[in-house]
Write a structure and sequence with these properties.
- The longest helix has 21 residues, at about 25-45.
- The chain is built from eight helices and 15 strands.
- It has about 350 residues and is of the alpha+beta class.
- Helix content is about 30%, strand content about 25%.
- It binds 1,6-di-O-phosphono-beta-D-fructofuranose and magnesium ion (2 copies).
- One magnesium ion (MG) binds near residues 115, 118 and 279.
- One of its GO terms (molecular function) is magnesium ion binding.
- Keywords: Carbohydrate metabolism, Cytoplasm, Hydrolase, Magnesium, Metal-binding.
- InterPro entries: FBPase_C_dom (IPR044015), FBPase_class-1 (IPR000146), FBPase_N (IPR033391), FBPtase (IPR028343), Fructose_bisphosphatase_AS (IPR020548).
């Protein structure tokens, strides 16, 4: 019989990687895993229960909130509140940070930034969606944790991960010692170690971006797209276009097969659409830990200054060679954009 290692067992085994840690981070990861299983249960029967469709409200970014967005947000918040290892949460679905002031959590070491349900537009149509999370150590030693504690650069992340609710459900995470993946075995209700030491292929054949926005793309992206589409046997071109519209699923696929995901600036999103704190930084940490690359077209995502919890950024993320190539086109044809992004960052 093959030996199964559950996420819980794996975390305990890896505890040795943190000689000064007392198990808090492990318990925090376990709490996130528990909430993920509850969300997974609901996603799996979404057509049968009253969980599809819109919640009838807008979030802070002016996007229509779905019922499943609300459900997932509630589950992760409640798991983190009762777990006792997290003193502050920044969520896509909450305008402001959530302080956890209970006796046990007030002095907890960690902060969690989360996109509870990524790929909202795919919820109602049975296409893979995800959860993205990022964990930071609080800046202050003790006492009430404030918003300032979460405004940290991506390089300061202690751990990051995602859950993909797809044809199977997986949890993938890093604590800065490589990337490991766990598949949920529904028969025992456990995430089981299935993808050891995940590696982003150095190059690939897939590019993912919303080509419907083409006319609004910066010149560098337009030129890079042309490069992807032109035939060249030596470099395996033309590449294939694949866009799911759930960032987690697009990046997960590219991590397995090789590829680049781009969400550039557009006319409607002049600072980019995706959020730095709970979408781009955690995925950049995972992708870099797997040997890939993540930039805003000019600068490393994890080095960007963070001013607001819902701050946006353009992103170029994936196989190292492909991201570097796209950056070459950006600096040749869209150099002026670099200055305006720097100005946004310096504000
Ligand atoms: O529909 P668009 O503009 O291509 O945007 C799709 C992108 O927006 C997102 O859905 C944003 O995430 P949320 O669903 O968490 O708001 C990404 O997952 C995805 O890559
Ligand atoms: Mg998202
Ligand atoms: Mg979301």
């Amino acid at each position: 019989m093959t030996k199964v290692m559950t996420l819980g067992q794996f975390i305990i085994e890896r505890q040795a990687e943190f000689p000064y840690a007392k198990g808090e981070l492990s318990r925090l990861l376990r709490d996130i895993g528990i909430a993920a299983k509850i969300v997974n249960r609901e996603v799996n029967k979404a057509g049968l229960v009253d969980i599809l469709g819109e919640a009838g409200t807008m979030n802070v970014q002016g996007e229509a909130v779905k019922k499943l967005d609300v459900y997932a947000n509630d589950q992760f918040i409640s798991a983190l509140q009762s777990g006792g290892e997290c003193c502050l949460i920044a969520s896509e679905e909450n305008e402001d940070v959530i302080q956890i002031n209970s006796e046990v959590s007030r002095n907890a070491k960690y902060i969690v930034a989360i996109d509870p349900l990524d790929g909202s537009s795919n919820i109602d149509v049975n296409v893979a969606v995800g959860t993205i999370f990022s964990i930071y150590r609080r800046k202050t030693e003790s006492g009430p944790c404030t918003k300032e504690d979460v405004l940290q650069k991506g390089v300061d992340q202690v751990a990051a991960g995602y859950i993909i609710y797809g044809s199977s459900t997986m949890l993938v995470y890093t604590t800065g010692h490589g990337v490991n993946g766990f598949t949920l075995d529904p028969s025992i209700g456990e995430f089981c170690f299935s993808h050891p030491n995940m590696q982003f292929p150095k190059s690939g054949k897939m590019y993912s971006l919303n080509e419907g926005n083409y006319v609004h793309f910066p010149e560098g992206v337009k030129k890079y797209l042309k490069y992807c589409q032109v035939e060249d046997k030596e470099t395996n071109r033309p590449y294939t276009s694949r866009y799911i519209g759930s960032m987690v699923a697009d990046i997960h696929r590219n991590m397995i097969k090789g590829g680049i995901f781009i969400y550039p600036t557009t006319a409607s999103s002049p600072k980019g659409k995706l959020r730095l704190v709970y979408e781009c930084n955690p995925l950049a940490f995972i992708v870099e830990q797997a040997g890939g690359r993540a930039t805003n077209g000019f600068k490393r995502i994890m080095d960007l200054e963070v001013h607001e919890i819902h701050q946006r950024t353009p992103i170029f993320i994936g196989s190292e060679d492909m991201v570097k190539k796209a950056e070459e086109f950006m600096s040749e044809y869209s150099a002026e954009l670099e200055e305006s992004l720097e100005a946004v960052e310096a504000k």
